Amino acid sequence: MDVTLVYFEDCPNWLKADAHLRTLAAERPDLHITRRIVDTPEAAKETRFRGSPSILVDGHDIFADADAPVGLSCRVYQTPDGPAGSPTIEQLREVLSRG
Question: Is 24:96 a contact under the CB 8 Å cutoff?
């Protein structure tokens, strides 16, 4: 399964998502993790980037919100503990287990 972490450097939330994905990759050898930086408004528009961090599984944004604006912003995820800058490792584990 191909997982892509899409982010921009000025949003620190990608680091937590990256740590979660590294943990899951250690548990699941079938996960292939890549990282892609989106660093301009033009690139955000071109890739339909809905905020950092975005997590794509086989090219699809697994936490997509069609109403979220496209652009360079930090993304907010709804977690069991309330809004956060990254999905929890449990949320990621659950979504990835479906694939």
Answer: yes
Q: Is pTM beyond 0.85 here? A: yes
CATH of the domain at 64: 3.40.30
Q: What's the number of domains the chain is made of?
A: 1
pLDDT in tens, 5-45: 999 999 999 999 999 999 999 999 999 999 999 999 999 99
Encode pLDDT of 49-76 as tens digits. 999 999 999 999 999 888 889 999 999 9
Range of the domain at 49: 2-97
State the alpha helices, DSSP H only, in the chain: 13-27, 41-47, 89-97
The rounded distance, in Å, linking the Cα atoms of 83 and 61 is 18
